[in-house]
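Give me the fold.
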Amino acid sequence: MRLAALLLVLIAQDQGARPTFTSRADLVVLQVSVVDRRAGFVAGLPRDAFVVRENGRAQPITMFDQDDTPVTVGLVIDSSTSMVPRRDAVRAAALAFAQSRHPADELFTINFNERVWRGLPDGVPFTSDHAVLRAALERTTARGQTALFDALLTALRHLDGGSQSRKVLLLVSDGGDNASRAQFADVLDAALQRDVVIYTICLADDNDREAKPKLLRELAKVTGGESFFPRSNEEITPTLERIARDIRSSYTIGYAPPAESGSGVRRRIEVDLQGQQYSKFTVRSRSLYIAPGAGGGR
């Protein structure tokens, strides 16, 4: 199975095609961002600049791509009472993000308070239409409690139906949860079983006792995303525009995991740059993943 997958990779690259990949027992795909000390994105690095380690052991890189390819993106928006002062700013920021995206990206929205609901019309799982996305965002409200974990599980499962090989979630919330059936461990396992990068935007007041910024930071870190903490409504739009640039500037790196690695267990991943000339750069990628078992693990 592993050999067949690698042969398909080589054939597709020789023919000039861009293959699509998902993490499974025979191939692990990583979305990798490189930034300099000014947080500027670094493009144009060669394959041999990167080294990938699984559980401390270097792994041969079997595929490498740095083109601006389309993405399936889910906007997961907290619509509980705590978001009332931020609702209009979040809507404007989400539209600004949509304008900065790749024209072939497919988007969807998930809203949540004590319940979870999709923003797009019935029968429209994804959209690339700005007007349709605007209408979906305008249907959001801000009231009730917070089922954050249930919403994230819904969004992760919805990503599975996307046609693009790269998958991203943008979560806008304060990190609190007081209405979910799911637990954070359920969300983390589901995320680590998928090729998904999660960015989190924490919108919390200083007196918000239910806010969980550390939870949002952990979710972003282990999936290779980034967490942001805008101090005002005016900072929300620049934050989402920066995320859009990050998505469009990332590298895609794939490797075949060691034969002795078992499925259904967490594996530690490290991606670094090798060479003194790259010492001023910082690499960001997911740090863990879970290979699906025989049943798919999802």
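Residues 71-248 form a domain with the Rossmann fold fold (CATH 3.40.50.410).
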